[in-house]
């Protein structure tokens, strides 16, 4: 049931949605999945009233939040247009919140049938999906590490400004400067994450493409040949039995 599958995927956090999307269309996003991951990060930034510790639980945006998100991205469509995009395939509440998956399907002109139909068997080697998963994890880890570092710097700067104790201010300032000095390390980690993503993208780019239509035609041809062989074998066995019976009367 496509509606049940849809409810299940949009009930998951943004990170799970973008991972599902990329795995479903892994061969279509050669060299581009970094862009999709950045969209997911940006999407989460527009969720209002979410505590820092609950950021990873974000799964959708309200109408106004989504409107701002679309506007900031320079998109010309409205939230209403976005909600209408899946109308031909599934009936949704006209006032529902907007999940990241809805935007991704519209952005990249994909539909629900494609989303929930796995690639033909053998078209995506297992090690490529594993490489993609590792790259996604590296990207998310780098983004989260930088976000936490910036938060700590901001908290320490506030503590330095409000502290009335000279020794305490000096200690806090030193901690803040140490964190600021970690920028190179964070940049190196981000560079390493990008390298992993590029390697995965290169592997995907070099992967042999499989045409689903051609594969289906090949399967049907093999099935036809198998049935013809079985029929031929049955006819030969039947002739052999008739020949054996005839020999009894000679």
Automatic annotation (TrEMBL):
Keyword hit for rRNA processing: no
Biological process annotations from GO: actin crosslink formation; parallel actin filament bundle assembly
Coiled coil (residue ranges): 129-162
Residue spans crossing the bilayer: none
Keywords, ordered alphabetically: Coiled coil
Name of this protein: Calcium-regulated actin-bundling protein C-terminal domain-containing protein
Source lineage: Eukaryota, Amoebozoa, Discosea, Flabellinia, Vannellidae
Extent of Basic and acidic residues compositional bias: 202-240
Residue segments, region Disordered: 202-250
């Amino acid at each position: 049931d496509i509606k049940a599958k849809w409810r299940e995927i949009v009930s998951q956090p943004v990170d799970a949605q973008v991972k599902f999307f990329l795995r479903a269309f892994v061969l279509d996003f050669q060299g581009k999945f970094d862009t999709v991951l950045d969209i997911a990060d940006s999407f989460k930034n527009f969720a209002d009233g979410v505590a820092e510790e609950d950021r990873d639980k974000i799964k959708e945006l309200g109408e106004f939040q989504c409107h701002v998100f679309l506007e900031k991205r320079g998109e010309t469509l409205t939230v209403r247009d976005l909600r209408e995009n899946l109308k031909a395939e599934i009936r949704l509440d006209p006032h529902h919140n907007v999940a990241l998956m809805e935007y991704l399907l519209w952005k990249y002109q994909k539909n629900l049938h494609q989303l929930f139909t796995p690639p033909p068997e053998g078209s995506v080697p297992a090690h490529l999906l594993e490489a993609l998963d590792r790259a996604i994890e590296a990207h998310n880890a780098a983004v989260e590490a930088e976000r936490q570092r910036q938060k700590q710097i901001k908290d320490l700067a506030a503590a330095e400004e409000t502290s009335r104790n000279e020794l305490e201010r000096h200690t806090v300032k030193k901690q803040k400067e140490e964190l600021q000095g970690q920028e190179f390390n964070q940049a190196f980690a981000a560079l390493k994450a990008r390298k992993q993503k590029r390697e995965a993208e290169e592997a995907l780019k070099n992967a042999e493409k499989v045409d689903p239509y051609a594969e289906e035609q090949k399967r049907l041809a093999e099935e036809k040949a198998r049935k013809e062989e079985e029929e031929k074998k049955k006819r030969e066995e039947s002739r052999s039995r008739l020949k054996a019976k005839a020999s009894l009367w000679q």
